[in-house]
Each structure stands twice: as C-alpha cells, then as structure tokens.
Amino acid sequence: MVLILWTGPKHGGKTTSVVELARRARQGGFRVAGLLAPSVYRDGDLVGFEALDLQSEARASLAVRRDDPGDVGRFHFMEEGLRLGRQALDGAAADGADLVIVDEFGPLELASEGWRSGVDALVRAGKMPLVIVVRQELADAVRDVYADAPSRVLSATDPTSSPEVIRLLNDHRAARGTG
Questions:
Q1: Does position 24 have pLDDT exceeding 90, yes or no?
Q2: Domains, the chain, ranges and CATH?
Q3: For site-directed labelling of 156, which of 21, 90, 138, 166 has its Cα 20 to 30 A away?
C-alpha cells in the first residue's frame, strides 16, 4: 500500500484534479472508491461543501458557511454528510477497490474527527493505494500522522501527477498478479 498526499493550496483545484484522476483510473479499468467533497457556490460565493460517495454516487450536504464561528472557521458540518463520508470510507465499502480517494483530510481529521477513523483503518489494512487530498500547509502534519506508511507527495496541479498514480496502480495490480 502506498499513501499518496494529493496537495495544493486552499481552493487551488485539488478536488477538480482528483475528480480527473478518478476518471482516468476508471478508464484504465480500476475500481475507485472513497469520497469527494466538492465546493458549493451560490452567486459566485462559496457557501458550503457536498459529500459524494465515489461508488454509489450518493450525495449529501457536508458543510454550510454561516456568519458565526463553526466547526472549522465559519463552516458548520452536517451529520448527514459526515455519515455518508464515513460510509464511503468504511472498510467494507472500500473492499475490492483498486484505489481509494479521501477528499479531504484537514483540520477536523488532524483533531481525530471527521474521516480520521476511516482513514486510519484503511491505512492499517494497507490493501490498496490511498490518495488523500490535503492542503499544502497540512501535508507534513498528515505525513507525521501516518509516519509508518510509505507515502508520496504529489501536486494536484502538476500534469504528471495523475499519470504517476496510474503507473502506481498498474504496478500494484502487477504485484498482486491481477494485471
């Protein structure tokens, strides 16, 4: 198992590029599981985030922006979205996947909340490559959390990053003898 930290600046296209990675992986015949957290905009303003299960394509509201302090900044997390995310990252849901994507690992997870327990279990299981979307400034902290797992840092904006992950998936497939 290799842990890939998919990094970039805040609101710098990490989710957009990991969506493209998931598409390319599927085109290559790989099964993709996990979770996306696309931004929700209204009239050009960021108003929240959705949770999207990459296997079932189920969606739920993950976080909404309000004027008062929230769980992270002014974002208030919704139980429905957190539940969907936990289900998408559950070991049983990810079982049989060639690649699991976690969008994103942030302050909640570093505080042992959010998706943390699911990610911890996937890292411990070590069955498949795991792409964790993380802001550049948090990448070292995430690497420290999973110091025992082999990891790579790839830039979400580097055009060679997606092909590198596909190469790693092909190597993983060949090592398992399923290629």
A1: yes
A2: 3-176 (3.40.50.300)
A3: 90
- The closest alpha carbon to 37, from 137, 109, 123, belongs to 109
- The residue with tokens 């198992």 is 1
- Would you state the structure tokens that stand for residue 88, as one six-digit string? 């998408």
**How far lies 36's CA from each of 41, 150, 178, in Å?**
16, 23, 27
Residue whose tokens read 């995310």: 85
Tell me the two tokens of residue 78. 């919704």
- Looking at residue 125, the DSSP 8-state letter turns out to be H
pLDDT of residue 69: 83
Distance CA 132, CA 138 (A): 11
Burial of 107 (0-12, 13-18, 19+ CB in 10 A): middle
Q: Is the pLDDT of residue 59 over 60?
A: yes
For residues 29 and 172, is the Cβ–Cβ distance under 8 A?
Answer: no
Q: Would you state the torsion angle of the CA atoms of residues 106, 113, 123, 168, taken in this order, to the nearest 10 degrees?
A: -20
Q: Any idea which residue has 């990610």 for tokens?
A: 119
Residue 77: count of CB within 10 angstroms of its CB: 21
- Looking at the DSSP bridge assignments, the partners of residue 80 are none
The pTM for the full model equals 0.92
Q: Which residues contact 25 (CB under 8 A, 6 or more apart)?
A: 32, 98, 99, 165, 166, 169
